[in-house]
C-alpha cells in the first residue's frame, strides 16, 4: 500500500494492517519521520513538501518490489505527506512485516534510505526568517548507496 | 500533446527560480535530455543554471534518466534538484 | 520505560509517548514481535514465557543505557510479555526516538538483538502434539555479537 | 536469608527437569559458582546435566556471571538455559 497525501495518517491503523497479515508474521518494524525543529536551518516551524505526482508512486512501488525480492517481506506500507506541515507533524511512514526481525529491519531501513535519494519529493524549510529549499545530504547519499 | 512536441516540467527550486512549471518544446529527431538542458540554458538569466550550475536530476516519462537519454515527441521530460523527501 | 507484564500492550500508546518527546525528535522506529505459527516446531498455537523477575528489568535498562551512550536516543520504551500467549499475540515492543533515522534504527535493532541473547526470558512453544522449550539460535548469537 | 547460606534458583527447562525452583546451600569460604554446579551435579539423575550437559548460564545477584565468579553467604545464584525471549 502506497499513499501520497496532504492529510495526516494514523500509524496505529497502519500497524494493524501489517499485523493482520496472517499467522506467519513474527516481526513488524515501523519508521515514522516527523518535522524537526532544526534541519539546514534552526528554529524551523514548518515544512512545505512538493512532489512529482505519478512518478513518486512508481518509484516507491519499485523500492517495495526490490525489498520484497531481497528479503522476506510479507507486507509493506508507505505513506508520504505533501503540502504544508507544521513542527512535529508526521511526514512519512514506512512499515514492513516479515516472519523474521532481521528481514523486517533491513527492508524498512532500505525503503526509507532509498526513498530519501530516489523518490521525487522536495522539502522547503520555513522559519520566521524566511524559507529555504533543503539541500540533499552527502550522508543520505552514502546511506542509500550502502544497499547497492 | 502534439506528435511534434514534448513536454518539459520543472519542480521545486528550479520551478520557482525559472518561474515555469511546464513548457512544450519541439521534438527534433535524435534529441537527448542533455540537448534540452543546453537549449534551455542558452536562454540566459536564471536558465543558465541548467548547465554547469547546481546538479540537475532528469526524469523521462517519470523514470530517472541521464543527459544521454534519447527523448521524442510525446515524452514527458522533467528537470529537478536532487530530491529531499522523507 | 521498561515493563515486563502478562497483559497485552498498545503500540499506539507507546508510539504516542515516543512522539511526545519534543520538537527535536525527527525519527521514531518501533519493533513488535508476534507469536508466529512456526518456530522450532510447526503449527505452534501458543507460547509460554518465563522470566527472571528483577534481573530482566536490570538487563533491559543496561541495554537502553548502552544504546543511549552509543547513539542519539531521545527516548526508548521496551515492553516484554510473560505467561501464556496465543498465536499472533504481541510478545515484545521496542521503540526508540531520535533526531535522526540512522540512530533510531540502530538503537532499536541493537536493543532487540541484545535482548534476545542477554535478557533472562525463556519461551516454550505449545502445539497440539506437546510442548518444547525453544533452543537459543546460533543466528541470534551472531546477530547480537555484530554490535560488539 | 541466613548469613551462612546462599540461595540457588533454577529457571525454565532446568527448573522443570530438576523439579526445583530454589535451594538454600551452605556458603563455604572461597566458593565459586562453578563449585556449586559440581556439587549439584554430584546428586546424580537429572542433576548430572549441570556439568558437561547442555550449556548452563549463570547469574550472581541478578548479573551475568561465570563459573569462576566467587559467591558468598546471602548471594542469589541462578542457573538457567541460554535465554530465548523476544
From TrEMBL, chains A, C:
Protein family (similarity comment): Belongs to the MoaE family.
Keywords: Molybdenum cofactor biosynthesis
Catalytic activity: 2 [molybdopterin-synthase sulfur-carrier protein]-C-terminal-Gly-aminoethanethioate + cyclic pyranopterin phosphate + H2O = molybdopterin + 2 [molybdopterin-synthase sulfur-carrier protein]-C-terminal Gly-Gly + 2 H(+)
Principal EC category: transferase
Full protein name: Molybdopterin synthase catalytic subunit
Pathway connected to this protein: Cofactor biosynthesis; molybdopterin biosynthesis
Domain of life: Bacteria
Matches recorded under PANTHER family: MOLYBDOPTERIN SYNTHASE RELATED
Organism: Marinobacter koreensis
CDD domains the record matches: MoaE
E.C. code: 2.8.1.12
UniProt cross-references to Pfam families, sorted A to Z: MoaE
Assembly, per entry: Heterotetramer of 2 MoaD subunits and 2 MoaE subunits. Also stable as homodimer. The enzyme changes between these two forms during catalysis.
Automatic annotation (TrEMBL), chains B, D:
Domain of life per record: Bacteria
Gene3D superfamilies, sorted: 3.10.20.30
Keywords: Nucleotide-binding
InterPro entries: Beta-grasp_dom_sf (IPR012675), MOCS2A (IPR044672), Mopterin_synth/thiamin_S_b (IPR016155), ThiS/MoaD-like (IPR003749)
Family: Belongs to the MoaD family.
Record protein name field: Molybdopterin synthase sulfur carrier subunit
Amino acid at each position: 500500500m502506497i499513499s501520497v497525501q496532504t492529510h495526516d495518517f494514523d500509524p496505529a491503523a497502519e500497524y494493524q494492517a501489517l499485523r493482520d497479515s496472517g499467522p506467519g508474521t513474527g516481526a513488524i518494524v515501523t519508521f515514522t519521520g516527523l518535522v524537526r525543529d532544526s534541519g539546514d536551518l534552526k528554529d524551523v516551524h514548518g515544512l512545505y513538501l512538493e512532489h512529482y505526482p505519478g512518478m513518486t508512486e512508481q518509484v516507491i512501488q519499485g523500492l517495495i518490489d526490490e525489498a520484497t525480492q531481497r528479503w522476506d517481506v510479507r507486507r509493506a506500507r508507505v505513506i508520504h505527506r505533501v503540502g504544508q506541515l507544521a513542527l512535529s507533524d508526521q511526514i512519512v511512514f514506512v512499515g514492513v512485516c516479515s516472519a523474521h526481525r532481521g528481514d523486517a529491519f533491513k527492508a524498512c531501513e532500505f525503503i526509507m534510505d532509498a526513498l530519501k535519494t530516489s523518490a521525487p519529493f522536495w522539502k522547503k524549510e520555513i522559519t520566521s526568517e524566511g524559507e529555504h529549499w533543503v539541500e540533499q545530504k552527502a550522508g543520505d547519499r552514502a546511506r542509500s548507496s550502502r544497499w547497492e | 500533446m502534439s506528435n511534434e512536441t514534448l513536454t518539459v516540467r520543472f519542480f521545486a527550486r528550479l520551478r520557482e527560480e525559472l518561474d515555469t512549471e511546464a513548457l512544450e518544446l519541439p521534438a527534433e529527431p535524435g534529441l537527448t535530455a542533455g540537448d534540452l538542458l543546453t537549449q534551455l540554458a542558452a536562454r540566459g538569466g536564471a536558465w543558465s543554471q541548467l548547465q554547469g550550475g547546481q546538479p540537475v536530476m532528469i526524469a523521462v516519462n517519470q523514470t530517472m534518466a541521464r543527459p544521454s537519454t534519447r527523448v521524442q515527441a510525446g515524452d514527458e521530460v522533467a528537470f529537478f534538484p536532487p530530491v529531499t523527501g522523507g
